Backbone:
C-alpha cells in the first residue's frame, strides 16, 4: 500500500473514532439532561467547536402531554428572557425545509460554528436532539436510535421477541455504518445512520451551508435505506 494512502486511512480512522466518541458522549449527556441530572447548557461544554452569541443561552422545551403529539426540542434565548418557545416562530422554510432541523433553526441563528469537520459534526449532533428527546404520541414516529458501528445494530430494541436483528454484513466493507463528514468550499456533507421503527436502518446525508462561522441553511439531500422495516403498530 502506498505510504500516502496508508497515512490517509490512519488519519480517517482516527477522525472517525473521535467523531463516534463525541457522539456517544453526547447521547449519554442528553440522557442525563432528560433525567434532570445535568443542565442543558453543558452540551456546549462538550461541543468545543460551537458557541452561542454573547448573552444567549440554551434551553429545553418539553413537549408535555397535549394535542396529538410532538417532540421536545432545544432552543436558544437571550439574557433572562426565558420563554415557553414555539418552534414555528421565525422559521425560514426555504433555508430549513426539513422537520428534524426545523426545531434547531432558532439555535443556529445565534450559533457560531468552527468551519471544520469537527464543527460540522457537532452542529449535526445538536440538530438531531429532537429525535432523541422525550416525545408524545405521534411525535414518537420521529424517534431514532443512532448507529455508529456494527455493534450498535445488535442493540436495536425489538418490539417483538422474534424480531430478527437486521443483517447489514454486506455494508461492512463500505464502512457505511460509520459517520462521515467532508467539507468542500462552504458546504459540509454529514452522513450518519439511524434506526427507526417505521423506516428501518437509514443512512442520511445532510448539507450545511456555511457563511463564515455561521451555518445559514441545512437540508437533507439523501436517505439510503440499508434495511427496510415498517412497524405494524400505528400510534
Residues:
Amino acid at each position: 500500500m502506498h505510504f500516502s494512502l496508508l497515512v490517509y486511512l490512519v488519519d480517517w480512522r482516527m477522525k472517525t473514532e473521535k467523531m463516534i466518541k463525541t457522539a456517544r458522549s453526547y447521547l449519554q449527556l442528553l440522557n442525563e439532561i432528560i433525567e434532570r441530572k445535568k443542565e442543558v447548557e453543558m452540551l456546549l461544554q462538550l461541543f468545543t467547536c460551537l458557541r452561542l452569541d454573547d448573552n444567549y443561552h440554551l434551553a429545553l422545551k418539553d413537549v408535555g402531554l397535549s394535542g396529538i403529539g410532538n417532540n421536545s426540542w432545544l432552543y436558544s434565548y437571550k439574557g433572562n428572557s426565558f420563554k415557553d418557545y414555539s418552534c414555528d416562530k421565525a422559521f425560514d422554510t426555504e433555508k430549513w425545509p426539513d422537520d428534524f432541523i426545523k426545531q434547531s433553526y432558532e439555535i443556529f441563528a445565534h450559533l457560531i460554528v468552527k468551519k471544520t469537520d469537527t464543527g460540522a459534526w457537532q452542529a449535526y449532533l445538536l440538530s438531531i436532539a429532537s429525535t432523541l428527546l422525550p416525545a408524545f404520541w405521534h411525535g414518537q414516529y420521529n424517534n431514532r436510535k443512532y448507529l455508529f458501528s456494527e455493534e450498535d445494530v445488535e442493540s436495536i430494541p425489538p418490539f417483538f421477541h422474534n424480531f430478527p436483528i437486521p443483517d447489514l454484513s454486506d455494508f461492512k466493507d463500505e464502512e457505511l455504518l460509520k459517520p462521515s463528514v467532508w467539507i468542500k468550499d462552504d458546504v459540509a456533507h454529514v452522513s450518519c445512520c439511524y434506526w427507526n421503527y417505521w423506516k428501518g436502518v437509514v443512512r442520511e446525508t445532510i448539507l450545511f451551508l456555511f457563511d463564515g462561522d455561521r451555518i445559514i441553511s441545512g437540508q437533507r439531500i439523501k436517505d439510503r435505506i440499508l434495511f427496510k422495516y415498517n412497524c405494524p403498530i400505528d400510534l
About this structure: The first strand starts at residue 50 and ends at 52.
